Amino acid sequence: MAAVEIVSFGYLHDAPPPAHLTIDLRHHFRDPHVSPELRYMTAYDAPVRAAVLGTPGIADLIEATARAVAAFASGPSAGPVVVADGCAGGRHRAPTFAAALAERLREDGHAVALRHRDIDRPVVQR
User: Fold this and answer.
1) For the segment 28-64, what is each residue's pLDDT rounded down to a tens digit?
2) Are 3 and 106 in contact (CB under 8 A)?
3) Domain extents in the chain
């Protein structure tokens, strides 16, 4: 199986990293940031992961992205497939999605490197 690099990020911090596939989670999936009890947590915290993974459509998007990665990996060129997924601040939706995608891809036998670019940045006040 192919090597895969997954980078989660926040659009409010910087431009998306270069990737073969970029997933924008900002507009179609509820932001845990709006819940005061979750705002200062990150994807490292179970309540945030539960909120994101319980959002309708997220599981389907993880599966669809895993299929897209398999399509990229089946191509003739060498090198890792790079997936970037972003939300507003990079602390909730994007890293949760990235970790779940990494787990799903590992189940398929891919070697996965996972990086959360903005998870440790301060909460964006908006």
Assistant:
1) 998 888 899 999 999 999 999 999 999 999 999 999 9
2) no
3) 3-116
Alpha-carbon span 4 to 123, nearest angstrom: 28
15-39: burial string, b at 16+ Cβ within 10 Å, e else: ebbebbbebebeeebbbbbeeeebb
What string of H, E and C letters represents the secondary structure of the chain? CCEEEEEEEECCCCCCCCCCEEEECCCCCCCHHHCHHHHCCCCCCHHHHHHHHCCCCHHHHHHHHHHHHHHHHCCCCCCCEEEEEEECCCCCHHHHHHHHHHHHHHHCCCEEEEEECCCCCCCCCC
What's the pTM? 0.95
Contact assessment for residue 124 and residue 94, using Cβ atoms and an 8 Å cutoff: no
Q: Which two tokens stand for residue 91?
A: 């602390």
CB 63 within 8 Å of CB 57: no
CA-based nearest residue to 92, from 37, 22, 20 = 37
